[in-house]
Amino acid sequence: MNNMEQFENVVIFHHPLISHKVAILRDEKTSMKEFRELIEEITTLMTFECLKEGVPTETRLVKTPLEVCEQEVVKDNSIVIVPILRAGLGMVNGIHVLFPSAKVGHIGMYRNEETLEPCEYYCKLPDGIEDKLVLVVDPMLATGGSACDAITNLKKRGCKHIKFMAVIGAPEGVSKVAKAHPDVTIFVSTLDRCLNEKGYILPGLGDAGDRLFGTK
Ligand code: PRP
Ligand code: URA
Question: CA 129 to CA 131: how far, in whole Å?
Answer without folding.
Answer: 6
